[in-house]
Amino acid sequence: MGLVDRLTVLLARKHAEIGIDRSLNLYLTPIAVALFRIHTIAEG
C-alpha cells in the first residue's frame, strides 16, 4: 500500500461522488422544469 494506491482510491471516490451528482442532476433537472411549467400553467 503505497502513495500511488492511496491517490488512486481518493480519485476513485471523488469520481464516484461526481458521477452521482451528475446522474442526480440529469434526472432532477427535467423533473424540476416540468413541475415549474405545471405550476406556471396552473397559475396562468
Task: Report on the architecture of this protein.
- The mean pLDDT is 87.
- This protein has one domain (1-44).
- With 44 residues, it is mostly helical.
- It is rod-shaped, with a radius of gyration of 19 Å.
- The protein starts with a helix and ends with a helix.
- Helices cover 93% and strands 0% of the residues.
Q: What is the number of E strands? A: 0
SSE arrangement, N to C: H
How much β-strand is present in the residues?
under 5%
Tally of contiguous helical segments: 1
Shape: rod-shaped
Overall pLDDT score: 87
Task: Give the topology.
Elements: H1 3-43
Kindly summarize this structure in a few lines.
With 44 residues, the protein is mainly α. Helix content is 93%, strand content 0%.
Tags for this model:
single chain; rod-shaped; 44 residues; 93% helix; mainly alpha
